[in-house]
Amino acid sequence: MEKDYKRLLSLFKEQIKIAQIRTVTAANKEMLLLYWKMGKLILYHQSTKGWGAQIIKRLSEDLKKEFPNQKGFSPRNLNYIRKFSLEYSLPILLKLNEASSKMCLKNPSQLSMQSILFDFLQQAVAQIEDSHNQDDKILQQAVAEIDESPFYESILSKISRSHHVILLDKEPHLGKRLWYMHYVLEEGLSRNILAMQIESGLFERQVSTKKINNFKRTLPPVNSDYANYFMKDPYIFDFVQASEKADERNVEEQLATHVTNFLLELGKGFAFVGKQVHFEVGGDDFYADLVFYHTRLKCFVVVELKAREFRPGDASQLNFYVNVANDFLKSDEDNETIGLLLCKGKNNVVAEYSLKGLSNALGVSNYQTSKIIPDELQSELPQLETIEKEFKNK
Question: pLDDT, tens digit, for every residue of 151-161?
């Protein structure tokens, strides 16, 4: 009986957690829908009645009196509500929904994302003027009669208000903003991490940039497209969160603590296997800087770090480690190992020639330290040569 009871209790807990998540999700959708409608009303009355910014302050005061226990009615929040509705008028919302459905690909590629977002942006921008006219007509109806289904179905309703504030503040480009919304859902990003990724130009580094690899020639089409899509250039190492008063000891301690974490920007699907992974080949010892396993591609990924600019011989060294990993780590169920070289600068033409003729899947990317580190602390950070030595010694 005790065993059956514990199983029953476990099922109850699971169902309660599911219900709690659904409740929170539903509440978020309703709150965002409310904001969307409120924003429409503000815009409509400002445009038709000639009301200026002062109406925001007056609405804030009266709403706080009427709903003293409810947050979200400060002048600042009401201005965000207005902007939220302005940026996502009904025609734009419909385009967002259309583009979102196309982005939910089983195997996304860099080119497919560029195409979807480019086409979406072109059509959306062309409709912005028309959208205001259509909204005026819609708002002449009672708010209750507005069709809510496009909003409920949109990706807008699936992320939190705080994420929307970050996106409205930091990303004016509508197509990029849509991509970040999907990225938030896929990666489960907090608002702070989202802000950091936007500031680091994640979209440009992953979707816009030309990437140097031979994946198309060495991997099956499905895997090559996805491997190229998740690759970034450059990689940003956000491994130190330093305050203005941080001293050298503090920075060094954080570096030692997060020496592997700063490479986890590799993205979703990577499982850390080890650093300085030892291989004995022909009686000699060799050490691969970092080894990951990619759960979606079902393969090992060997990462080599160079604290200098790329040299042609680096590709041969990485190719060696990929060969070794295929023999020592790969099982019959795994796909062929991928190699990724991270360096402090590269000549793209030289890198492309270096990968020609190699049959293993290899990529080359730049990396740089985090832009969020204050300039005055840069001189206190250990040199990148020291980082490389630390990998070698662990």
Answer: 988 999 999 99
